[in-house]
Amino acid sequence: MSDHDIDTEKAAARKAAHARRAEAHARSEPDASRLLASTLAEYRGLPLSGYLAIRSEIDPLPAMSEAAAYGPVGVPVIPGPAQPLKFARWTPETELVKGTFGAMVPADPEYFEPEVVIVPLVAFDARGGRLGYGGGFYDRTLELLRSRRRTIAIGFAYDEQQAGSIPLEPTDQPLDLLVTQSRILRF
């Protein structure tokens, strides 16, 4: 399959997945992160990064807040195009400012490397494949982190974001786990 073909296939998959995610988000429960919190309990004390939800992403904030009582928690910061993410320490009291793509980031970042990364996504499949926004930020970042040490990638999504299959490239980094509002998948 040519690069153009996979790009076209991924664009179509993203469009359909964004629509499914928006519908799920409109019907979501206030604390859809209950299972995520119980999953993170397995990794207490390890450096962890979550994310601050944008658009119709499922919100990991309650689980991140709970995890912050046990060890360092951070959020991603985009340093520039085609670069790996950096992770800035976060607590529920951290002062935030608007960062790249509208995501909130710590006003005074203190960077660290997480060993557990909660990964936002547009779609996932039953084999641990993940479709993101198309910038490759998490793929680059997970590849870099995994080259240094074991790094656990936990996808967090609504059940409705599951697709039959995801068009994948050799550079796409797999998930180790996927947590939804109702189940946990281990790959």
Automatic annotation (TrEMBL):
Residues 1-31 are annotated as: Disordered. ATP binds at K10, A11, A12, A13, R14, R130, L131, G132, Y133, G134, G135, G136, F137, Y138. Pfam families: 5-FTHF_cyc-lig. Its cofactor is Mg(2+). GO terms for molecular function: 5-formyltetrahydrofolate cyclo-ligase activity; ATP binding; metal ion binding. Substrate binds at L52, E57. It catalyses: (6S)-5-formyl-5,6,7,8-tetrahydrofolate + ATP = (6R)-5,10-methenyltetrahydrofolate + ADP + phosphate. It comes from the Bacteria. GO terms for biological process: folic acid-containing compound biosynthetic process; tetrahydrofolate interconversion. Residues 1-12, 20-31 have a biased composition (Basic and acidic residues). Gene3D superfamilies: NagB/RpiA/CoA transferase-like. Its EC number is 6.3.3.2. Keywords: ATP-binding, Ligase, Magnesium, Metal-binding, Nucleotide-binding. Belongs to the 5-formyltetrahydrofolate cyclo-ligase family. NCBIfam families: MTHFS_bact. PANTHER family: 5-FORMYLTETRAHYDROFOLATE CYCLO-LIGASE, ATPASE INHIBITOR/5-FORMYLTETRAHYDROFOLATE CYCLO-LIGASE. This is 5-formyltetrahydrofolate cyclo-ligase. It comes from Pontibaca methylaminivorans.
